[in-house]
């Protein structure tokens, strides 16, 4: 049975300030919960009898068998899925100079949780292990973000930081800082490196002016055919996908 | 002033059956409404005095100046934006053999409105003029889809149809039918044509079995580096973006 206190605790984690105070977040469904297992400590697990029976070895500080009705009350999903877990997280620091050795992403105020989750998932696909986010970027532990990552949070580390300082540090150390602009250079004509930082901007406003100044490599995804009337821009997650794919394709050449 | 009848009419268009009965949909904000102008007949426009004054030439069967409070009541957005329009649409037939001459997309039960809107927007970017959707795919006139297209509905035509029949027809006529599968061929190693159909599948289940049988060209987006543990798949909109970008890149070679 799900106690009122536990229900209240889970529901409280919808809000960022509570997640931050508790250093905890909610993940749902067999796929996402299963993927995060072992990468984060599970503080509380609630699941149907069926799921519990099928997953006896799942390690959690506390487990609670619930009915579908109880799960529905606790869930943040429109269609709750058998299991919901509260995981602990730690805010680990990361030296941004890691970008000297490998490709990283920076997000400058990406605000839509779906976009952030999708970007974390594709970073995982393309072997990008670190995403640096401006403080105004959506919270990666927001339940909507966690679900959109489809478990990629197990492998991709997210760091919230001051992007102006970070990009200035990298630029000062001669590490390439890439950004996408409507007047940038065609990504297919440009040399792309195996290291450095790819900065992606806010959904409406793109990359902020202060961060733009630190971008040494201005990129552009060409539309097709050239010169015809088209959408003004691409959605930030799809643009990130095309750019990451092209970086990785060039590494095979 | 916004009458109760008009408010009720606008709000009724949240539901697909009402949109279908009325052959009408809602678009919001200066950017999206502006882009759709001229491409669809505007039946009703409601806007703030400021927007009305700045856009005196906007053609609509009926215009109604409203307060911000009235706009908020009518709007489907979390942050309503100055103007909301009801546009008429026509269900136009389209001969699927258009795919003999140009690249088209088919969506096999894509269910998330954000994904559908994002795909319409990127189709526009890559000069793809026709998207064929299975009947179970999200409705392109859903307010969430319309907003996510960012105006691309002005140029990209969406056709709801039986995809099994459509893909069989194309395959029977020797027109390439592409699909993405985890056991497909690397998109970077494969020849891609300037015509044909790219089929993208449902968020959870991929391409249905019946449609899969008609796919003559099985594609795969390689992850990086090869062979490491990663996410099982990419989000459907980001996968579509990478594939369309690669088709268009190969056309430049």
Describe this structure in words.
Two copies of one chain form a homodimer. Chain A is built from ten helices and ten strands. With 253 residues, the first copy, chain A, is an alpha/beta fold. The longest helix of chain A is centred in the C-terminal third of the chain and has 17 residues, at 236-252. Chain A is elongated. Chain A binds chain B through residues 114, 118, 121-122, 124-127, 148, 150-152, 155, 188, 221-225, 228-235, 237-242, 245-246, 248-249, 251-252, and chain B through 114, 118, 121-122, 124-127, 148, 150-152, 155, 188, 221-225, 228-235, 237-242, 245-246, 248-249, 251-252.
List its salient traits.
homodimer, 253 residues, alpha/beta, 60s Ribosomal Protein L30, Chain: A, Alpha/beta knot, 6-stranded parallel sheet, 4-stranded mixed sheet, elongated
In short:
The structure is a homodimer of 253-residue chains. Chain A has helices at residues 4-12, 16-22, 30-36, 49-54, 68-74, 113-125, 143-149, 163-172, 209-212, 236-252, and strands at residues 24-28, 42-47, 63-65, 83-88, 103-107, 130-134, 157-161, 177-186, 196-200, 217-220. Chain A has 253 residues and is α/β, with parallel strands linked by helices.
């Amino acid at each position: 049975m799900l106690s009122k206190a536990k229900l209240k605790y889970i529901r409280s984690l919808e809000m960022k300030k509570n997640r931050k105070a508790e250093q905890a977040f909610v993940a749902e469904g067999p796929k996402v919960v299963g993927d995060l297992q072992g990468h984060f400590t599970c503080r509380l697990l609630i699941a149907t009898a069926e799921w519990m029976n099928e997953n006896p070895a799942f390690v959690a500080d506390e487990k609670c068998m619930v009915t579908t009705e109880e799960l529905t009350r606790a869930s943040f999903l429109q269609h709750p899925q058998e299991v919901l877990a509260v995981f602990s997280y730690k805010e680990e620091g990361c030296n941004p100079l890691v970008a000297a050795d490998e490709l990283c992403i920076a997000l400058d105020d990406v605000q839509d949780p779906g976009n952030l989750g999708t970007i974390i998932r594709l970073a995982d696909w393309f072997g990008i292990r670190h995403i640096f986010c401006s403080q105004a970027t959506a919270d990666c532990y927001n339940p909507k973000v966690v679900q959109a990552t489809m478990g990629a949070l197990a492998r991709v580390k997210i760091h919230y930081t001051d992007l102006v300082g970070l990009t200035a540090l990298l630029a000062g150390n001669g590490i390439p800082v890439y950004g996408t602009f409507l007047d940038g250079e065609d990504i297919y004509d440009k040399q792309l490196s195996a290291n450095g930082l790819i900065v992606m901007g806010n959904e409406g406003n793109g990359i902020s002016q202060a961060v733009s100044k630190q971008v040494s490599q201005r990129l552009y995804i060409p539309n097709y055919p050239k010169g015809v009337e088209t959408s003004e821009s691409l959605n930030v997650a799809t643009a990130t996908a095309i750019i990451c794919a092209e970086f990785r394709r060039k590494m095979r050449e």
